[in-house]
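Re: weekly structure request thread

Next one in the queue (154 aa):
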Amino acid sequence: MNTRRAFSLLEITIVVVMLGILAAIAIPRFAGASDEARTASTESTLGSVRASIASFRAAAVIAGDDPFPTLTQLTDGSTLRFDLPANPFNNLSTLQSVNAAQAQNRAVVNPGGAGWNYFVDNNANPPVAIFYANSTATTTKRDSSGSYLTANQL
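Done, posted below.
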């Protein structure tokens, strides 16, 4: 005799409900992990570029040149020894120049066109260079009052 066995509708419903409960618990934990990874990646890129600018400055001061790299020097391989990675919050790896007021306020300029902003003024006293992310997306990093920082504030 051939008898066929199958799952009952009740058994399938119980399995689907259990999978739903597991998904409801697991998905928020993974979502938080990706937000933390974006923040860490942004901080890492900012740290690497700022360290490269500091290294350029040390060599330039010793040589008697302008202390900070121009936008061209920052991107032509003479300052950064790596390709500028994409900003994790807007997926753009392009770098644009901003003015002093925009840089002081960490303004986001042309958010769909550039991932990073750079301001340099070697004629100021003292000379100034500011490099920051071109995004106002909220990060997982908190300031001293407990509020979340945006990417351009890192």
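The CA atoms of residues 137 and 150 lie 5 Å apart. The helical segments are 9-63, 71-75, 100-104.
Next request, please.
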